[in-house]
Amino acid sequence: GQNIDQPTEMTATEGAIVQINCTYQTSGFNGLFWYQQHAGEAPTFLSYNVLDGLEEKGRFSSFLSRSKGYSYLLLKELQMKDSASYLCAVLDSNYQLIWGAGTKLIIKP
Amino acid sequence: IAGITQAPTSQILAAGRRMTLRCTQDMRHNAMYWYRQDLGLGLRLIHYSNTAGTTGKGEVPDGYSVSRANTDDFPLTLASAVPSQTSVYFCASSDGGGGQGHTGELFFGEGSRLTVL
Question: Are B106 and A97 inside 8 Å of each other by CB?
Answer without folding.
Answer: yes
